[in-house]
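Bumping my old thread because nobody answered last time. Still need a sequence for this structure:
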């Protein structure tokens, strides 16, 4: 089997972690190709909830090798704390199982400090970043001044890091933020450099070999389509390419690796968004919104995994889903959190927008220009049954199946899998 790419179809909170976990049981390699520890992937195995931010979430399976690709930005502090917490609960995250690209970029304390200082300077115009230093690290990458994992294993790493922190201190001063104390950063990063050495590899070559040997490689996209730097709701986006085609570049694979690949778009059964920005299908009716969002008591309630912020909730936006399907080339859809919709008096799905009396089936200038659009809905009956115990398509209530069919029709992509709860086995394959 070739490459399988799993991508978030929305704003990055689709519940990809548990879907990757489902697919990972059939993979020999799981890989991440973009972003850093801004991601938040929750996987529940038995009574254990794993919250992974940086390491591919497929690592919680005993079989696959986990690869962190060249498209990523890696904070060594988060890396080693995540490795330690995985090993504490018996997951092997040693260098035989976890391989880190020599060409991946580093996030340093300077990037984190700059992220926070730049957000503060933006004031009301702030992006609402996770504060993990993602933007400044990718900025340095594009400016060709950043440090890479390969630098950590070189002999002049400490000098290079010192120069980097001095330069960042000048930028911090310009933003009115305090300078970093260079000595402690050099000390801790020297220790990280020794520790990271056995993990570093030419991961692109290893993946190429895996694909040639007929192994299954699962590429795990972080964030989601609408957070993509080019095609998302710019400037309220992350700083990496999140889409399926970025898996090739971010893992160092050639075009032929994409031949016959499966592209799974993970999409919640409704819409959520963190922070500000237009949201045409937002539900303002508090009783319905609360039903979707939850109270925050359960880990799968609609509160950010990385930031803890409550998410805004709304009806599924089919216009945005079609957009995501086109840009990623989805070959199948995975719908998550169907169980949350049980008990809704009716279900709506946005099929088009209207603005100034005109109907739009697609956005004229992509999702950045959502302002002023109103949703046009198809309304379907709801269902009252608890679906969380269902494992067969034919056992789902008819209105739930009708809704899933409507999603597939509106998106133009078939629904292949549905999740009905946070546990590993709470999955219903399409009939
Ligand atoms: P950054 O990636 O920290 O620069 O944040 C940029 C935007 O992306 C902010 O709106 C974040 O909340 C959002 N974001 C980044 N990573 C994720 C994610 O994994 N899920 C959802 N939103 C994210």
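Sorry it took so long. Here it is:
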């Amino acid at each position: 089997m070739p490459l399988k790419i799993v991508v978030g179809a929305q704003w990055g909170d689709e519940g990809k972690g548990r879907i990757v976990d489902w697919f990972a049981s059939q993979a020999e390699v799981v890989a991440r190709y973009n972003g850093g520890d801004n991601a938040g992937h929750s996987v529940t195995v038995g009574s254990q909830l794993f919250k992974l931010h940086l390491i591919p979430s497929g690592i919680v399976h005993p079989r696959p090798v986990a690869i962190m690709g060249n498209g990523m930005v890696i904070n060594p502090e988060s890396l080693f704390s995540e490795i330690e917490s995985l090993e504490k609960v018996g997951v092997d995250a040693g260098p035989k199982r976890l391989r880190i690209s020599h060409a991946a970029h580093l996030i340093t304390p300077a990037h984190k400090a700059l992220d926070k200082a730049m957000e503060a300077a933006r004031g009301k115009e702030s992006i609402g970043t996770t504060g993990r230093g993602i933007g400044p690290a990718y900025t340095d990458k594009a400016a060709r001044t950043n440090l890479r994992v390969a630098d950590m294993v070189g002999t002049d790493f400490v000098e290079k890091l010192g120069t980097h922190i001095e330069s960042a201190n000048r930028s911090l001063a310009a933003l009115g933020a305090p300078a970093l104390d260079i000595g402690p950063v050099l000390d801790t990063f020297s220790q990280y450099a020794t520790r990271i050495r056995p993990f570093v590899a030419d991961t692109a070559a290893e993946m190429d070999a895996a694909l040639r040997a007929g192994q299954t490689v699962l590429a795990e996209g972080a964030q989601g389509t609408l957070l993509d730097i080019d095609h998302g709701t710019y400037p309220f986006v992350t700083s990496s390419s999140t889409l399926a085609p970025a898996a090739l570049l971010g893992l160092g694979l050639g075009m032929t690796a994409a031949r016959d690949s499966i592209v799974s778009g993970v999409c919640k059964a409704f819409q959520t968004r963190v922070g500000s920005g237009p949201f045409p299908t937002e539900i303002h009716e508090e009783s319905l919104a609360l039903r979707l969002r939850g109270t925050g008591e359960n880990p799968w309630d609609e509160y950010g995994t990385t930031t803890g912020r409550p998410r805004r909730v709304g009806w599924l936006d089919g216009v945005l889903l079609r957009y995501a399907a086109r840009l990623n080339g989805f070959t199948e859809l995975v719908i998550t959190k169907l169980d949350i919709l049980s008990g809704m008096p009716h279900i709506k799905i946005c099929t088009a927008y209207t603005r100034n009396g005109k109907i739009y089936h697609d956005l004229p200038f992509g999702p950045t220009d959502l302002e002023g659009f109103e949703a046009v809905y198809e309304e379907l009956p709801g269902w009252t049954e608890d679906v969380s115990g269902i494992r067969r398509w034919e056992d789902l209530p008819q209105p739930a199946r009708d809704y899933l069919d409507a999603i597939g029709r509106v998106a133009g992509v078939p629904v292949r899998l549905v999740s009905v709860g946070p546990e590993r086995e709470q999955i219903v394959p399409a009939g």
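The first strand starts at residue 3 and ends at 8. Let me know if any region looks off to you.
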